[in-house]
Amino acid sequence: MNLNLLSWIIFLPVIGIIVLALWPKPSQKTVKWIALVFTSASFLVSIAVFLMFDRSAAAIGIMQFEEKLLWIPAINSYYHLGVDGLSLPLVILMTFLGVISVLVSWKIQLQPRQYFIWILMLESSILGVFCSLDLILFFLFWELELIPMFFLISIWGSGRKEYAAYKYLIYTLVGSAFMLAGILSVYFITHTFDMTALAGIQITSSFIPLSVLFFLLMVGFSIKLPVFPLHTWLPDAHTNAPTAASVILAGALLKMGGYGMIRLCVSMLPQVAVQYAPIMCTLAVIGIIYGAAVTLRQTDLKRLIAYSSVSHMGYVLLGIFALNQVSLTGASLQMFSHGIITGLLFAMVGLVYDKTHTRDLNNLSGLARQMPVIVVVFSIAGLASLGLPGTAGFAAEFITFAGSFVSVASPGMKIFTLIAVIGVVVTSGYILWMLQRVFYGHPLDKYNGLKDADAVEMIATFSVVAVIMLVGIYPAILTNVINIGIEPIARLIGL
Amino acid sequence: MMDEIRYIAPEISLLCFALLVIVLDLFIKPKRVLPIAAIAGSLCSLFAVLMLFTVPSTDVFNKMIAVDQFGLFFKALILVSLVLVILASHKYILKFERFQGEFYALLMLSAIGLMILVSAINLITIYVALELSSISLYVLVSFLKDKQSTEAGLKYLILGAVASAMLLYGMALIFGTTGNTCLSCIADYMKGMPAENLTGSPVLLIGLVLLISGFGFKIAGVPFQMWVPDVYEGAPTPVTAYLSVASKAAGFAVIARVLLTAFGMPVWLHNDWAMIIAILAAVTMTVGNVVAIVQTNIKRLLGYSSIAQAGYLMVGLAAMGLAAQGDSIIRSGLLFFLFSYTLTNLGAFIAIIAISNKINSDNIEDYSGMAKRAPLLAIGLTICLISLTGLPPTAGLIAKIYIFNGAVGQGLLWLVIIAVVNSCISAYYYFKVVKVMWMGEPVAQEEVTSTWPEWLALAFCCLAVVVMGIIPGAFIAITQNAAKMFGI
Lengths: 495, 488
Fold this sequence. Notes:
The structure holds two protein chains of two kinds.
Chain A: H1 5-22, H2 28-52, E1 64-72, E2 77-83, H3 87-104, H4 112-131, H5 135-144, H6 146-156, H7 161-190, H8 195-200, H9 210-224, H10 233-240, H11 243-268, H12 270-296, H13 301-322, H14 325-356, H15 367-370, H16 372-385, H17 392-405, H18 413-439, H19 455-473, H20 476-493
Antiparallel strand pairs in A: 1-2
Helix pairs in contact in A: 1-2, 1-4, 2-3, 2-4, 3-4, 3-11, 3-14, 3-19, 4-5, 4-6, 4-11, 5-7, 6-7, 7-9, 7-10, 9-11, 10-13, 11-12, 11-13, 11-14, 12-13, 12-18, 13-14, 13-17, 13-18, 14-16, 14-17, 14-19, 14-20, 16-18, 16-19, 17-19
Chain B: H1 9-27, H2 33-52, E1 58-60, E2 65-67, H3 69-89, H4 100-119, H5 123-141, H6 147-178, H7 183-191, H8 202-219, H9 227-234, H10 237-262, H11 267-292, H12 298-322, H13 328-359, H14 370-373, H15 375-389, H16 395-409, H17 413-439, H18 452-470, H19 473-483
Antiparallel strand pairs in B: 1-2
């Protein structure tokens, strides 16, 4: 029986868009509820897929919930969806954050209808990226995400919003432009856009050096992740985006980069990945340390968390290019846990900003007295971010480092890992320092009488905390799934 | 002879209606009937074209005109753009007071020229058809009779005349060498050519270069793009829209037909001109995109953008030249791109016409806050600009993927990389307009309304662009069918 569950996950938000667009003069309340209903529906379907997912050894290397329909016959392109252990956690992550982002936008005043249309479109396109198994379909969803993000940042953003939106647009387009050239070259060499078939083919070509092909694809993913010298769009986009967009951007969108690297670069061109592992690991370590060091210097709360993402995405890159089963599993788990933790952090910053109207660390102090609930949740998110045992952050980082420490992908992996671990120490530094400055110390009189989180905000944030704890205490709930997806890839690499 | 008349029924019916429009204009007071008659004529002609699709390919009038899928595809495309332009211009031309009949009649006459042009298979027919369409367009460009429009008309006339002269000279040289004007006869001569390259026959080489130059003017490829910005800016906007799509599409059709049928063989020959086109393509798109960045007038901006789009189209043309015979996927890339470009660009221009009817300005800064003043027009224009950039879910993306896919297959990866980088540059100026419309503060509170024919035209274009972007299969099949004839 085929229920086309993945199509439902992707297109429920689209149906939501249509309902929102056609609903005659909806009130603000109606708009919010429509958005909530459709994101929740998508989330519930994804949970159903998660529960029905086959975790047995027989499922290794097999795409589940596959759908395949001829789409563009002329170039042999299919509407081909499917999930494996690698993509399923990311799908869940996105649908979950979709619901959260609607909840944290509950008080939006400016053009709510248009706002939620863009949020839903963003969700739909990111889900499409994670579910696509056809390169052209993948690319289509990859590009689709740009438009809602551009509008979300430039209309509902703050500060230099238009500059940030433009920077985001151009950076991403440059990346995807090279990616398109790469995808077309792959097609020219192999005559297929099928990602599952491509993972098994030994690609050889006299037409284009494989390392050039590798980097054509890699540029787009590196910009998205982001990898160290290509990260400069990220602080601007995060800082100036509205809260919900930041949540999705940090939570799910960056993961498209990591996902693409594993799914395309590493799976399709494992030998080239091994060849360039030393360079990528070096960039990862630079990103970790540089990101963490720059974070220490930030005084804008959102910018601080944005730079911390640069650092944390370095762990993902290190895990990927350590190229063994454990490290890749760690990288995948890190993508998930960073998604929920940083999503929560941005949501909390949004709450603090809504109430105090400032994000400047120097203007904030002693909020613990005025808004205790927010402080508790914010602190849990912060502690998870620095990798406190018992939270998702710890599980992910530990597995990543355990994998990279024993990796043979590059000489000196042990040194890389040791340097990367320093990043964790610096992380503790800036997180604790931030918490101390914002929440403790002398309460400021001007913030007296500010309200704490209300019911909607509590529901949203507590549920994220619950997931962070769940994954932290019992990571096997995800690693079981991830392992199934990673194993065939690790086998291809053969290290 | 007489039974061959039915093959040019589309042109004849359009001509009858063009004359009818002029006559009606003389005798009938309410001018509302004019656009109705013009649209009726175009639809009649379109119907006649569709009827011919079932007829097996043949050539008529002593190898002057071909009746084939390729030509019919372009005829249909030209007629669809004619209908859309007439729908969009019915309000705009109330500005003229007099000469409304002539406006429609001239548009239809130039369409007849273009329709003959796309099916011409003899250098003489090509030249005559080209002049028929060009002369109508010279008049149309200067129709506003103000300073800018007159200047544009004069510029178009003079440069157009130079281009025609080059074309004619090229044709003369080719005739002199090969002794023939019919394309298939030239092809026969070329196949028997002993030389391993064209330098062995300088006269033919110069002839070919002049021929490409003459057509280069029509498609506005660098270095023959100089007229575009001024003419686009000065001409009445509906005429600009028409120039940017119908005239360009016909230009590409004729250049593809001449190069592929007359100079498609031997292999070294088509490899030679394909490389020239590839290099021109790179220059064309770069010039168009880079100069477009600094434009402040939307018509000029779209003028440069249409130069850039011509560059992408030339990528397809180069790939067509390099392709092995009978590869209809690569050969249809150009056609599908033209298909999508025509609807997209027309959509953008229709929105601009509707907006400028109300605000009397083409400055991008006057579009500020247009999303609040005219939300649906703004949505339409945004969809078209997104498609021109080549982002999903629109035809623009699929067209780019499709045309670049063909080019990569022919070893033109370097050109594709230049082209995709160019797309990034183009995003900057297309989104500049989007940004102004959606994020700017309205300069006036007055709502910008539009009439239902403008609506209809815009809605048709946007819908087509989105549908082609999501389920392109059937549309690609149409273009593949049209491109099949080159698989000799």
